[in-house]
Design goal:
alpha/beta; single chain; about 45% helix; globular
Length: about 260
């Protein structure tokens, strides 16, 4: 538990990764979260290598951290490594979510129906969609359409738009706010876009949709303490009730309850 302006909150980092640049990603991961006062996290695995690291160190991770929710990348064109991890998680009775990453897996609108069909074969909890616009592959800039499509296709599940839309945060929020099973994490964007014209849009969307936004660091891109500091700075150290929603309540309801 950490203290945010006098309020005790069990912080949850809703967007983390292994650091593949170090010799021991598992111990580095555990150490970083402990340094930040975080013992519950959402661990996103975007490659076969990351999934292998998780399964080789599952017992250590579960012993050192209070709760971990795992998210496996789904690539409709190369499903083998996802299927292996999803089936293993189901066998071990571990809850997991599905990650859709338009840029990494080159998703276009032509893939939506096939993705929806195949993921229906699995017992997943949420669908996490990367929503940070980057690169020159314009056909893959479809994360808003993809989120709305999946939220309507799977109304009994939550869809989490990772990175809160990046440079299109305002458009993301206004296009998806009426879809009640769409939520957001603000990882990476709150740090990376500091000082840009997007800064006020981020603040507006977080304040006015605070019951649907989750804190995330996107570690190792940013240390959780650094991300916590910048989010509090963005919000001008105000709204303690909003802090509770952002740092714990929303993520607990979406990933852990």
């Amino acid at each position: 538990m950490v203290c945010l302006d006098g309020v005790g909150i069990v912080m949850i980092d809703a967007h983390t990764h292994f650091n593949l640049e170090v010799d021991d990603p598992t111990n580095e991961y555990i150490k970083t979260l402990h340094e930040a006062g975080i013992d519950e996290a959402v661990l996103i695995l975007n490659s076969p290598e990351e999934m292998e690291i998780f399964w080789e160190n599952e017992d250590k991770l579960m012993a050192q951290l209070k709760s971990i929710h795992i998210v496996f990348l789904f690539d409709v064109k190369h499903r083998t490594f996802f299927d292996k991890s999803a089936r293993m998680a189901e066998k071990k009775k571990l809850e997991y979510s599905i990650k859709l990453h338009p840029r990494l897996t080159n998703i276009t609108k032509n893939d939506f129906d096939a993705i929806a069909k195949y993921i229906g074969e699995y017992s997943f909890r949420n669908i996490v969609i990367d929503s940070f616009l980057y690169g020159s592959n314009l056909e893959s800039f479809c994360y808003i359409d993809l989120a709305i499509f999946m939220a309507r296709k799977y109304p009994e599940h939550n869809v989490v738009m990772a990175h809160l839309g990046g440079i299109k945060v305002l458009e993301t929020m206004l296009c998806t706010r009426e879809v009640k099973n769409i939520f957001y994490d603000c990882a990476f964007s709150i740090n990376y876009l500091k000082g840009t014209s997007i800064w006020m849009d981020l603040k507006h969307c977080i304040v006015h949709s605070g019951n649907r936004v989750m804190f995330g660091s996107d570690m190792p891109s940013f240390h959780p303490k650094e991300a916590e500091k910048i989010l509090k700075y963005l919000l001008d150290e105000q709204k303690l009730d909003l802090f509770e929603c952002l740092f714990e309540k929303n993520a607990r309801e979406i990933y852990f309850n």
